[in-house]
């Protein structure tokens, strides 16, 4: 739609001047069109230059004519031209600058108003002078008749009316479209957040269950070793000792499981609830048959069973133990009550219609929270949705899906997870009705608001038509600006629909004008529409209020943003200070309540912290078996050397006794000679000190391993304090030795003058374990028969330190290099990696104010480089302390 329309009333009856005026109308309309299309900065700047060039050419030509004609008010006329040129120069300079200034309607309004007013007053004044000078009165003669003026006015009103209808339709469509897009985007965002929540909850439950299974399996291993040791050493098992041993192991696990031991026939001999007078057999149980028939059966996790001693539903985790000759001696089982799994599921916060359930490897129901009275939801039943069946059949470890038809008739968004430590299927779901309740309410409100808005738009168009019917100057640019301003007011309804606050500050008067709904955000009287700083920001935290006032006092043309705290709520403020000479100085600020988003971010951060702690404990559990092997090796040769030393010392003591006896019998050396002939003194002289040295070396090695385990498992502090990075590397290398010694050689290039850094010892240990274990896995994937190489290097950087871990493994693909630090991203097969290690590593390093980077080429290994400051920056230190 054009800004200006040429009409006969603007004619000065001088053809060449009228042609130039029409050309000016044209270039101004082109500039208006460029701003309406929201063209880029260059297109708008080009249009401004055309307006300036056309205007200057016209003014120069007009001034030369006036001087030639001898116009008496020539000086005053030129002065008016100069005022306009000053405004044009400022506009051109703004267009040529690099700032983000956008052309305002007020600037166009000033130029168009000046042009129309200048033509109708100053230009027509010199036109009358020219007409009188030429003796004609040509202007009066050629002025349009009243009938022509009415016809032009009617035509103009119809054009403006058509334009207004188009504008209103465009505004209506835009508002409806923006509202629909915003509601749809809000729903999609909400569903993404809920999907992330159920997936994180499922992952956390998987960690909790898997950690319990790992603890029980470790205890079963210990019981197996003890039983086989008793059979090997004593040839039998003492009932009392067995009962004490099993009760101790049960107490160590805080009653998590009941441990029982059977003989080779399946009769329960020892354990909780067993009595010598009663005989209970489990020879027909699946887990007993599997262990009896398979010497390498390992850990067996059963489906739900009704125990024959406690008569309660439970899950049996069992292992086989063997006799001295390696034959089957019986089964050790740990029975976990179903209620324990139900207690884990009940800890998840899933809303009124949420559900968490666990199924066994045959898809039979184990437990469900909340419990259901439906026959299809009882223990052992295999009734479930098609979507869950597809997730199980896919073989994926984790998957999310949406179900509309469920056994209890509740529509849900679910996360499925195949547990990593047990053959179970976990499903966590949140009810659609719960998390979309607010969204449905917003949709209802939006429909009502849009309906009212459309009625208001139609009524506004009708009212404008009535107003245009009463005026003959419908094409005046000021009128067009007022209509656009009215449209802006209508568009402000979109802010209210999107639950945004609106504040307009008049920098001249200092008054704040509040948009609808803003009062509730600020916690002030809903009836207040405007007020002073004290009235509007009374409840804002004093330091936030001070920052806002400081930004407003600068009065620059740039945008600003900050957060305001009001009690427990937080508002995000986005605004711009405008000091346009063509419009009143004002500040427009938009407010959005981001409290829920901040709380969600805090909860997510807390969940990641819990996952990190779980990951550390899982790593410790994974390393436990290797650590036990590392301790067992030196223990064995310490035991062997002590046995040899015992035999040698016994022989020497016999010799000493014979010497003592010979002394008492005054020279009878027969027994001495006999004992001396039976000894190899040279051999004992050489080997006994060597055996003692080897035993001492073994005990020192055991002590080093135990000290490393202690420092790794129980760091000296959970707060940042000075630590020796080289020492931590030595500790972690000792703890993880069983992981890497079979696949790689570990090389150290540690700076002996490396300064201590301020850090949390346990978290740096976790980072080192993640990097060393990842390097080991990368080398193992090569499948090479020769050992790979892992090189750990440290060096001082002046104000910090650098740690480098380089391996000769398979390397990282370029497309994966940018994603390896993302949470849950993994290239390993399902069940072999959770995608948490490097994400947690990056979070720990960033919390310490450091940086971590990865370099790799496929097939040439990978290098992880970490830089840490000697002192944690203030913000990072606070975060680390809170963690």
UniProtKB/TrEMBL annotation:
Record protein name field: histidine kinase
Key words of the record: ATP-binding, Homeobox, Iron, Kinase, Membrane, Metal-binding, Nucleotide-binding, Transferase, Transmembrane, Transmembrane helix, Two-component regulatory system
Entries under PROSITE patterns matching the protein: HIS_KIN (PS50109)
Transmembrane segments: 160-183, 446-465
Pfam families cross-referenced by the UniProt entry: HATPase_c, Hemerythrin
Xref: Gene3D superfamilies: 1.10.287.130, Hemerythrin-like (1.20.120.50), Histidine kinase-like ATPase, C-terminal domain (3.30.565.10), PAS domain (3.30.450.20)
GO biological process terms, semicolon-separated: phosphorelay signal transduction system
Entry EC number(s): 2.7.13.3
Catalytic activity: ATP + protein L-histidine = ADP + protein N-phospho-L-histidine
Keyword NAD: no
